Amino acid sequence: MCKLSLINNLIKLFLPEVCVACGVELLQSESGACLKCLYKIPRTNNFSKENNSAEILMAGRIPFERIATFSYFVEGGVLRPMIHKLKYYNGKNLGLLLGKMFGEDLLASDFINNIDVILPVPLHPKKQRSRGYNQAEVIANGISEATKIPVITNNLTRLVFNPTQTKRTKTERWKNVSGIFEIKDSTVFESKHILLVDDVITTGSTIEACGYALQNCDNLKISIATIGEVL
Ligand SMILES: [Zn+2]
Predict the structure, then answer these.
(1) 44 CA distance to ligand 1 middle (Å)
(2) Prediction pTM value
(3) 25 alpha carbon to ligand 1 midpoint, in Å?
(4) I need a labelling partner for 66 at 20 to 30 A (CA). Which of 5, 11, 87, 115 fits?
(5) Ligand 1 centroid vs 126 CA: distance in angstroms?
(6) Is CATH 3.40.50.300 the classification given to domain 43-229?
């Protein structure tokens, strides 16, 4: 056992970790949230629904095949504190588990057929350094564990730290999304069907900005998957 996990276990002994959603004391095998709350997450089950709410949000903004979201991100819901934990309180294990659960759901539908590569939305390197990890990549790794589809993290990079998120017209948005992300080698994704993965879809502007950067890859198909969807 490494020194850090020994210290962590000692801390747990005196200060047992509790579920972020219900506050119950966690078992040794659990991390971040209890199994009861994890299985209580209400699913959107929108994988096979054409024109689902996420697809309507992104329609006409970037070319895509399909969009799947795991659960709705609502005030008072169990998913909200879990995503908060994943993003701000070193909830990597919880994120991996959420990704795995999502991946298993996707496997049970035909959504995952023909996907070649999983591509997590990258963080700006500065932000990733301060957080220590990219939460979208953690989710992508969980989906990959369930589906056995490889994750690629070194070909799409984020150049701009913090783009504005305000509502804009279509033309203004295109200006706003250009140059936020950059593809290093467009041939890597040539003729591939990629699954773009993020933690939560809110305005869709981050996904749109990734789509803008990916447009130079020849014969590329994009599907999108996020754990949370803000309605
Ligand atoms: Zn719980």
Answers:
(1) 20
(2) 0.89
(3) 8
(4) 87
(5) 33
(6) no
